[in-house]
């Protein structure tokens, strides 16, 4: 297979808007270990292709069809993958650091142990994707769809998840330190033993979320919907809960000393002792009848 010739024909195809040359099409082909560095393969059809161990750093694959492709352990650092269709693809252990994945479709893809640090995933679709142990430090995931994604143990430290959809996502044991989760949808999410230290969750939806044994030191829950959330035994010391809604939340044994509770809504049967209840009222909390 003369890959260089095919790439040259694709270049001509792009430059002439399809009048000359030929679209790069290698559906189901074995392209493992091929060097695509700096190549422009935008719009290429590579569904089902084997690109494991391939080097695609600095390559342009915008709007490319990579459905169910094997990109395990591939190098895609600083690659242009805008609007690419990577649904159902295998990207385990791949290096996507600094890549542009805006509006890309990664639904159902396997990104376990992948490196997506500082990548741009704005508006991307990662619903039902597997990202266990993935590195997303400093990544931009604003308005991304991560609903029902498996994110156990993933590193989101300092990531931008503003307005992201994380409903019913598994974030058990994930690192979300200093992440921006403002106005994000985390309803029904599993955040057990997750590290949310210094995270911004203002105006987020965490209704029905499980925050058991989560680390919440100095996190911001201003105006957050925590109704029905599981916070049994949670350490909420120094946490900003102002204007938050904790009605129907399970707060049995929760530590709330030093928490900011101005206009925070609680339910009288939330598991809070009468002594703590009065202290919270004195600090501006609102208790509604059950």
Automatic annotation (TrEMBL):
SUPFAM superfamilies assigned to the protein according to its UniProt record, in alphabetical order: Pentapeptide repeat-like
Gene3D superfamilies registered for this protein in UniProt: E3 ubiquitin-protein ligase SopA
Pfam families according to UniProt: Pentapeptide
Name assigned to this protein: Pentapeptide repeat-containing protein
Organism: Tumidithrix elongata BACA0141
Organism taxonomic ancestry: Bacteria, Bacillati, Cyanobacteriota, Cyanophyceae, Pseudanabaenales
């Amino acid at each position: 297979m003369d890959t260089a010739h095919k790439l040259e024909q694709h270049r001509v195809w792009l430059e002439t808007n399809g009048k000359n040359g030929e679209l790069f099409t290698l559906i189901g082909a074995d392209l493992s270990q091929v060097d695509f560095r700096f190549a422009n393969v935008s719009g290429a059809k590579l569904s089902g292709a084997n690109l494991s161990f391939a080097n695609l750093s600095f390559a342009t694959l915008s709007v490319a069809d990579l459905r169910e492709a094997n990109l395990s352990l591939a190098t895609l650092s600083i690659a242009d993958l805008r609007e690419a269709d990577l649904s159902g693809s295998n990207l385990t252990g791949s290096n996507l650091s600094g890549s542009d994945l805006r509006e890309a479709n990664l639904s159902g893809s396997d990104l376990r142990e992948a490196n997506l640090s500082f990548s741009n995933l704005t508006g991307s679709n990662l619903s039902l994707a597997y990202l266990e142990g993935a590195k997303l430090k400093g990544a931009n995931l604003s308005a991304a769809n991560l609903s029902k994604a498996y994110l156990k143990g993933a590193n989101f430290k300092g990531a931008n998840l503003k307005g992201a959809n994380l409903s019913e996502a598994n974030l058990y044991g994930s690192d979300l330190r200093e992440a921006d989760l403002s106005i994000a949808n985390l309803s029904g999410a599993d955040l057990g033993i997750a590290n949310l230290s210094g995270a911004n969750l203002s105006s987020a939806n965490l209704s029905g979320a499980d925050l058991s044994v989560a680390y919440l030191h100095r996190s911001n829950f201003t105006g957050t919907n925590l109704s029905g959330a599981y916070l049994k035994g949670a350490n909420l010391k120094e946490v900003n809960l102002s204007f938050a809604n904790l009605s129907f939340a399970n707060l049995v044994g929760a530590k709330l000393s030093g928490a900011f509770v101005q206009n925070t809504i609680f339910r009288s049967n939330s598991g809070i002792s009468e002594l703590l209840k009065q202290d919270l009222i004195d600090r501006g909390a609102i208790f509604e009848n059950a």
